Description:
Blueprint (H helix, E strand, L loop, with lengths): L5 E10 L2 E10 L2 E6 L9 E3 L4 E4 L1 E6 L12 H10 L2 E6 L11 H14 L3 E4 L1 E2 L8 H7 L4 E4 L13 H14 L3 E4 L3 H13 L5 H7 L2 H18 L3 E3 L5 H12 L4 E5 L1 H5 L2 H7 L12 H9 L6 E2 L29 H13 L3 H15 L16 E11 L18 E11 L2 E5 L2 E2 L17
Parallel strand pairs: 1-4, 1-5, 6-7, 7-8, 9-10, 10-11, 11-12, 12-13, 13-14
Antiparallel strand pairs: 1-2, 2-3, 5-15, 15-16, 16-17, 17-18
Amino acid sequence: MTTLDLAIRGGTVVAPDGARRADVGIADGRIVAVAGGLDDAARSDLDATGLHVLPGAVDAHVHFNDPGRTAYEGFESGTRAAAAGGTTTIVDMPLNAQPPTIDARAFDRKRAVAERTALVDFALWGGLVPGDVGRLDELAGRGVVGFKAFMSDTTMPEFAMADDLTLYEGMTRAATLGLPVAVHAENEAITSALAARARREGRRGVRGYLASRPAIAEIEAIGRALLLSEETGCALHVVHVSTGRGVALVAEARARGVDATCETCPHYLVFDEDDAERLGAAGKCAPPLRPARERDALWAAIGDIALVASDHSPSLPELKQGDDFFAIWGGITGCQVLLGVLLDAGHHERGLALEQVAALSAAGAARRFRLPGKGRIEPGADADLALVDLGGETALGAGTLLHRHPHSPWAGRTLRGRIARTLVRGTTVFAGGRVAGPPAGRLVTPENTEES
């Protein structure tokens, strides 16, 4: 009989084949047993009676700003918020740091900051920008999960939009390296021309902005990225899809053998264009919030969506102010609500099975980006767990949202379901509404990444 470090007893474990009453035995940061009535002795016992035990969420799309932009959100505050929401692994995007993560030196600088300050485990995206294809190998050698490219203007000169040749050559190299390319898919020619016209005509408010980024801009760019993926043999991941038609394009390509997946975000699953007008700057993002029919189409297509990610993109408060909506920072603050929104709007409101909640919030990202030990509750996996009181509530506001700056479209909402405890590799990092323990996040790199 094994002596466990921790036994979580009496909870309802959410496994891929359904939820069942079981105990979870943990040793050396890993799950060693999942069984009913586990009788192994443990140095510590945790009573989970009345709670559901889910895999800790894996948020594959966050924008923290370390190193360089120290006044913005960083790994310290961002991962505290993530832990409060039941997230145990985040994957950080490459563009917001200074320098951006487009070479090995920049990767090393970001890793050093994250290892010093992150409360949860982390992985890193590398960047694909013009003139940088030759550096993809060194980023792969450091352990990036893949390469992020923008098909529209980033507004950041240090991380330029990838033109079609950059995408083609970058995907060709990424395919050889065995890593995916992730794209922000919006047609720049359409969006920039419509934005310029709206501003010339004085339509600088929320509705003018929404009209400048129509659904066709997203759909066309997804189609183009899929063609490049199919031609090069590169795995493609389309981030923050906001339209049902975009999801359908990816599903159709996958059905004909293209290695393509997509994600959506909590804000596209809950808010619509009327909410954008009500929320103002806190609800500005790109692609923008869509008409309610597109939100409903995403729910209808949820089985074709690989994962849900927050696209947490914070800014300084002053950048979320002004009369010209086009000039306001475009980004949703939301890394704390990923699992909570799926429980509230998915499970409680729409009857989404808990195993599908777990797949969308954890297993899908871990599987797509080959994160070893993450996203599942089974022997051998990391003991990354979210203990959830489905009958409880989470009031989101100044006292509970832990990200650095206060603006968020989620502030003022109450979610059905409460994160009672979050554990990373068997250690409690959040419990009773408070962060517990010092930063102990580790870098996670994809398994079995080899150049062919």
